[in-house]
């Protein structure tokens, strides 16, 4: 991409607070953006070939939305934890294997989207994200949802298309969890904790494409209780 095109992008971004440069084959995070650290609120660099986020990402203190879908990132720098105003972090379709603990410092984060990466362990350390609404970990390589999940504040957790065979009963203690998606995993009917049906806030529990027929859920104790929540939620939105 020519310098003059980048220059005009930067000039526009200075006025709008938005920098969007997608599908241009960029191999690194544009250094020139450092000039705009004080006024950029939205950055979208999806569909490029960026392998590394520089530590200087921590300088963008006004940033509310950072999108780097379909790049080649394998990790995130600890400095990302400095983005205290960040509300949306979307890193779908990269090569990320694990998250830095510093991600737990993103106090304003509402959406964390990591679909289609190479994460093999459920990320811990996200319980401090008190504003989190959506955690999308679909299409990864997670096999186990551990007890620590109970501390998450998320309203929706998407774990579709992983390799999950173990689901901790503590998931039912998530204080705000309404939607739990576990389609196309490796769960047996006996791996489903009954407490999700009987004692949780979950009103949409999606388990198609596992190692049992979904209609067999109806035979489990507490299914009626779950259906009451499901129906009440449906009525609210119709």
Automatic annotation (TrEMBL):
Segments crossing the lipid bilayer: none
Superkingdom classification of source: Eukaryota
InterPro entries, sorted: Leu-rich_rpt, Leu-rich_rpt_typical-subtyp, LRR_dom_sf, LRR_domain-containing
Pfam families: LRR_1, LRR_8
One Gene Ontology cellular component annotation held by this UniProt entry: cytoplasm
Keywords tagged on the record: Leucine-rich repeat, Repeat
PROSITE patterns named in the record: LRR
Listed SUPFAM superfamilies: RNI-like
Protein name per the record: Leucine-rich repeat-containing protein 57
Species, as recorded: Lates japonicus (Japanese lates)
High-level lineage: Eukaryota, Metazoa, Chordata, Craniata, Vertebrata
